[in-house]
Amino acid sequence: MLHMLRMETKRLRICPATRDQMETFVAAEPDGELKKAYTEMLSGCLQHPDQWQWDALWMIGRKDGTHVGDLCFRGPGQNGAVEIGYGIVEEHRCQDYAAEMVDAAVDWALRQPGITCVEAETESGNHQSRRVLEKCGFCPAGMPGKEGLRFSGQRIPCDQTDGEWAFRGTGQA
């Protein structure tokens, strides 16, 4: 089933990691917080293999096989929302890989049964990540999350109501 889950863009292949890949990734992670998060993701995959795509670390690679980053989903929640998180390896930043990947992830997620929107959070000082989300059509939701400014999206134009931005994204980079 995992081999059927794949996103492809003009330059990238995005696939959920296998158990072995996730175990290797966890073992190699030097940051304690990330190691904990990746361990929880692997545990979720093992406990709910039928929901692997929502718990797994997804590997982002160029079509020549070069690893450029990773992404993950959290959810879906009861309201049909999933959250994405992502990172690009430092030497591959500023090449629009993040926007290309986020756009593909949003498009893929919104095609899954029951998914109504895609959300993301970014630290207020992380201007590059915020720019990626905005480039992909996301708008600030007007409320902070655990990790910073919260974004959320559907494939409709942004609206501003009651002084706060509704989180909606076109998903088009």
CATH architecture: 3-Layer(aba) Sandwich
The domain count comes to 1
Taken as a percent bin, the fraction of beta residues is 25-35%
- List unreliable stretches of 5+ residues: 155-173
* Series of secondary-structure elements, N-terminal to C-terminal: EEHHHEEEHEHEEEE
Q: What structural category arises from helix and sheet content? A: alpha+beta
What is the makeup of the main sheet?
8 strands, mixed
Helical run tally? 5
The CA-CA distance between the termini, in Å, is 29 Å
pLDDT averaged over residues: 81
Write down the overall geometry: globular
Radius of gyration: 15 Å
- The CATH superfamily turns out to be Gcn5-related N-acetyltransferase (GNAT)
Number of strands: 10
CATH class designation? Alpha Beta
| The CATH topology | Aminopeptidase
Q: Strand arrangement, largest sheet?
A: 1-2-3-4-5-6-8-7
Tell me the helix content.
25-40%
Structure, briefly:
31% of the residues lie in helices and 30% in strands.
Secondary structure blueprint with pairings:
Layout: E1 7-8, E2 12-16, H1 19-28, H2 32-47, H3 52-55, E3 57-62, E4 67-74, E5 81-88, H4 97-110, E6 117-122, H5 127-135, E7 139-145, E8 148-153, E9 160-161, E10 164-165
Parallel strand pairs: 5-6
Antiparallel strand pairs: 1-2, 2-3, 3-4, 4-5, 6-8, 7-8, 9-10
Helix pairs in contact: 1-2
